[in-house]
Amino acid sequence: MTATYTFDVFSSLDGYGAAGGDWTGYWGKQGPELLDRRLALYGEEQRMVFGADTYRVFARMLASSTEESEVRDPWVTRMRNLPATVVSTTLEGPLDWPDATLVSGDAVDAVARLKEESPVPLRSHGSLSLNRTLMAAGLVDRVQVTLFPVITGRTGQDPIFQGAADFDLELIESRTLDGHTQELVYRPTLHT
To answer: Where is the Bacterial bifunctional deaminase-reductase C-terminal domain (predicted)?
Structure first.
């Protein structure tokens, strides 16, 4: 049996993974239900999968933060302490992550092998280009979008699905957090 792979991403309504300007993390829309939900999701046994760019961003962000900062929300601390696989052709070890394995080479081959060998589910938070590639290869079982109630038309950064293939999405779970943030979980199928 192969491990389930979830592409987990935060998004503005207009499809950006982040924003510049005066937006803060979570676009300033995090609430207790969102933070509790994230901690519960990351409390489950699983393996994280990151591309090189996302690994670098997380490692730099966490290294420069304090325990009291928003960056160190309990779910983020939990994520950092989960076993992780970083897929990269540019990074060299050792990695600044407690339990990380660096895998070089083709991402599709590496993740296909990981899905076959992993005894626990796989989850990737962010890693946009990696996950677009994995979706096109049919390796993503679930796309979990946490949709924040903002439009970042002028300041949006990191368009999540820019350049992605076309997909049909089957909604398999949904919930509203803090009365305004949507968590949507889809099963993607390449649209042919």
So the answer is: 6-178
Does pTM surpass 0.90?
yes
Confidence (pLDDT) at 66: 59
SS (H, E, C) the chain: CCCCEEEEEEECCCCEEEECCCCCHHHHCCCHHHHHHHHHHHHCCCEEEEEHHHHHHHHHHHHCCCCCCHHHCHHHHHHHHCCEEEECCCCCCCCCCCCEEEECCCHHHHHHHHHHHCCCCEEEECCHHHHHHHHHCCCCCEEEEEECCCCCCCCEEEECCCCCCCEEEEEEEEEEECCCEEEEEEEEEECC
Whether residue 123 has pLDDT greater than 90? yes
CATH code matching the domain that covers 5-190, chosen among 2.40.30.20, 3.40.430.10, 3.30.1360.70, 3.40.50.11210: 3.40.430.10
Residue 64 tokens read as: 């420069």
